[in-house]
Amino acid sequence: MSKTHTVTLIPGDGIGPEVTDAVIRILDATGVKFQWERFIAGAEAFEKYQEYIPKELYASIERNRVALKGPVTTPVGGGFASINVTLRKKFELFANFRPIKNLPGLKTHWPGVDLIIVRENTEGEYVGLEHEVVPGVVESLKVITRKGSTRIAKFAFEYARKHGRRKIHAIHKANIMKMSDGLFLKCSREISADYPEITYGEHIIDNTCMQLVMNPYQYDTLLLENLYGDIVSDLCAGLVGGLGLVPGANLGTEAAIFEAVHGSAPDIAGKDIANPTALLQSAILMLRHIDESSAADKVEGALERVYAEKQSLTRDVGGSAGTKAFADAVVKAVETAGQ
């Protein structure tokens, strides 16, 4: 008898519920059994519970140890703290993992991109330690620790070894931030010594951004601090078509949250035009994480087939299909896989 996976589900807001429903339909088509524990978060949750992240949501993730999350709006320059960052800190999801690959049939300036972005997910500027020293002067602290730097470096090298990746670049600004970024590099070098089969290199962050848009093929796996990783992962998404296409995973030793990394796009919410691809790609990572690799392969193959055929794509990638029609096409491709 097949196992039922209980997963915490955070549909999010804006287009979140639409793309989440589409992805759930596609996952159902695989035959894998899920029990979804659905929760709201952010402004909607505050209106209902006076909490941006309900206690029941925390308890669900702690119990299930895996969650699938749609986009949640984060206010700019004020308001409540990022739900994403809060959950990462709460559950020590220290590794942000984003594979960047082209989808078949989708024309970009850089075909054949195959990059792995490994981003430290709990430290750096994202610790949120900032205050106004005097009126008009704000001090923001960056925190880098040996523990955090060592474990993210080990994660990157372990992934590379397991999956046959042959090159890792640690990305830094140690020419300026000699102590903080210097510590990150020191830890990366120490870990690299245990993996002699993997070529290790170091590039300064600003040069890396230039190199990526000139020749992304020179890179394989990028190991980055939190802020640098946030910026570079979005840059790399642009190489293959944008944030609407790439997955995101937040991984720790006790829990994992798989999420779409794009925004909530409230301007197109409810119009049946949002692209579910990013959340679906994240769900594929989730399937592999819960040892449903056969289903993951089936969904990945179906998604690639729909893109290659170009018949049921959403508007953002040159098609005319709606969210539901795109999901219908992927469901059909899942159900007819191997025929």
TrEMBL record:
InterPro entries: IsoCit/isopropylmalate_DH_CS, Isocitrate_DH_NAD, IsoPropMal-DH-like_dom. GO terms for molecular function: isocitrate dehydrogenase (NAD+) activity; magnesium ion binding; NAD binding. Keywords: Magnesium, Metal-binding, NAD, Oxidoreductase, Transit peptide. Its EC number is 1.1.1.41. It is an enzyme of class 1 (oxidoreductase). The keyword Oxidoreductase applies. Residues 6-330 form the Isopropylmalate dehydrogenase-like domain. One of its GO terms (biological process) is isocitrate metabolic process. Signal peptide: none annotated. It comes from the Bacteria. Belongs to the isocitrate and isopropylmalate dehydrogenases family. NCBIfam families: mito_nad_idh. This is Isocitrate dehydrogenase (NAD(+)). It comes from Paracidobacterium acidisoli.
